[in-house]
Amino acid sequence: MPLLPPDDTSLTRAAEQLNNGGLVAFPTETVYGLGGDATNPTAVAAIFEAKARPTFNPLIVHVKDLSAAEALGVFDATARTIARTFWPGPLSIVVPRQKNGAVCDLACAGGDTVALRVPAHPVAQALLEKADLPLAAPSANPSGRLSPTTAQHVAEGFPGSDILIVDGGPCPLGLESTVVACTADGAVRLLRNGAVSREDLARHVGNIDDATEPDGDTLPSPGMLARHYAPRIPLRLDAQTVEPDEALLAFGPNGPAGATMTLNLSTTGDLKEAAANLFAMLHELEQSGARRIAAMPVPEGGLGRAINDRLRRGAAASVCQTGDLA
Length: 326
Ligand code: TXA
Ligand code: MG
Fold this sequence. Notes:
This protein is of the alpha/beta class and 326 residues long. It has helices spanning 8-19, 41-51, 66-70, 77-86, 122-131, 151-157, 198-204, 271-286, 304-317, and strands spanning 3-4, 24-26, 33-37, 60-62, 91-96, 113-117, 135-136, 164-166, 178-184, 187-192, 208-209, 235-236, 246-250, 261-264, 292-295.
């Protein structure tokens, strides 16, 4: 897995890899990010797969400036003030997704908000410029490990993978970005403490809601709340058969026939393809006019864990049965 110097030739290669759906680890002023094309659900599925995250947390989408951010998210006056004050810099702002914005459902974990950040690091800026894409990038560490602040940390975390790593030296801040949510009319909620202090924020924003302990670490973001995962119609798990008024979320080559609408996560049983399709297919099925969604079983291995986590939350939130009805 090559470490590349941050020169023009390497950045061109990295930008090509990103445009082809591949992954590139790159430095930001906070920590190294594991970047992929935020508009490409297969690339975003590859990020979750590489990190082996047990759930689909929403990812921070990196863009080159505020106007690129406004194409993807809806900024009210407060969000714009925060962006103008702290960008480029170590602050991520969660805002409602722009209707028809280009960020894929999986990057937002199926939710209706998106976390956006304009990083200040010159290598991150150069890569965003060359790739000309919004980049979804969580910290470039396997799930449960420390965030990487050098290219060597990244390389140690993903031995033998084909992720390209752009080596920009040690990250100057070494602490993740602060995450704030500006999703409800002027209110600002602190979702994660980070490199921009609460005091700094408070100087520019009238009132900060304490969604967290002032000294807290990462907290469950709104994306992780059970109700966020509820489809608008009931969801039935482990379906082997289907009722005529159900919409079927199939997996693998042998789905039952007869549903109102059938969408197949992956006819070949490919979990990465299934992850890439999951949220968009659930959205389509819940609008099909069916009374309920029946989901076929998905194996637990690899990305299957995160897919099943999402389906179970959806089923629990929508109060439904498991298995086939008598
Ligand atoms: O400094 C950083 O923020 C690094 C660099 C690479 O930018 N990235 C990073 O990403 O730390 P990650 O995925 O490890 O942490 C993202 C945090 C998580 O706590 C996640 O739940 C929250 O941001 N988040 C992302 N999108 C969100 C959303 N739509 N709503 C609420 N929280 C969100
Ligand atoms: Mg992280």
